[in-house]
Specification:
Layout: E1 5-12, E2 27-35, E3 41-48, H1 59-65, H2 69-73, H3 78-89, E4 97-100, H4 104-116, E5 127-129, H5 130-138, H6 145-151, H7 163-171, H8 179-192
Parallel strand pairs: 1-4, 4-5
Antiparallel strand pairs: 1-2, 2-3
């Protein structure tokens, strides 16, 4: 059996009226799912995160994610959220690969690591871009997660743009990804570490 994949989806502070980069944004939700090659979810974990760089959510952000100011005000700060994820993984990050739908999640985590001098332990595991690998496996142009789910004949379960729900939905796409492409991406990721 192949190694499970830790599917990670983040939500972050966002605005509709200004340009932003990962350095301007704060993670406000971690969604994590450990999935087998067949898409079966073995375990899941999610936590909201209190933003510090931009502590007040924009109306656009709340509308997009359904995460409210009250939600993040009572959430743990980023360093504590990292510890919660590490406790949930309880050493299972050893031997895991992790993936996200595109490169944003990895880039946001690297920015947060730089800002807070801490990251979940899984960040040191090989990362694979599931969006790129799914598209390449099917001979399609890359597309957003929602469109990929619908293209595959699935429905988007839960709330779109909520980390834990998006991570669960992305796990549905894992079975269509060629495992040889995943293995090649893992090898390439290791050469970058």
């Amino acid at each position: 059996m192949s190694r499970p994949i830790l599917v990670v989806d983040l939500e972050a502070t966002c605005w509709d009226d200004r340009e932003t980069t990962v350095h301007d944004m704060d993670i406000i939700e971690f969604g994590c799912v450990i999935a087998e090659d067949n898409g079966k979810i073995l375990d899941h974990f999610g936590t909201l995160v209190r933003p510090t760089l931009n502590p007040l959510l924009s109306g656009f952000c709340t509308q997009l994610t359904t995460i409210t100011q009250k939600d993040v005000d009572s959430a743990p700060p980023y360093p504590d959220a990292c510890r919660l994820i590490d406790e949930w993984l309880d050493g299972r990050e050893k031997g895991l690969i992790w993936g996200s739908w595109g490169g944003y999640d990895r880039n946001q985590l690297l920015a947060e690591q730089s800002r807070h001098a801490i990251a979940p332990k899984f960040l040191s595991c090989p990362h694979v871009n599931l969006k790129k690998l799914w598209s390449k496996s099917l001979g399609l142009r890359p597309m957003g997660m929602r469109r990929a789910i619908e293209h595959s004949g699935f429905t988007v379960d839960g709330t779109f743009h909520r980390g834990i729900d998006d991570a669960r939905n992305i796990s549905k796409l894992v079975p269509a990804i060629n495992r040889d492409l995943i293995n090649a991406a893992v090898l390439q990721s290791r050469t970058k570490l």
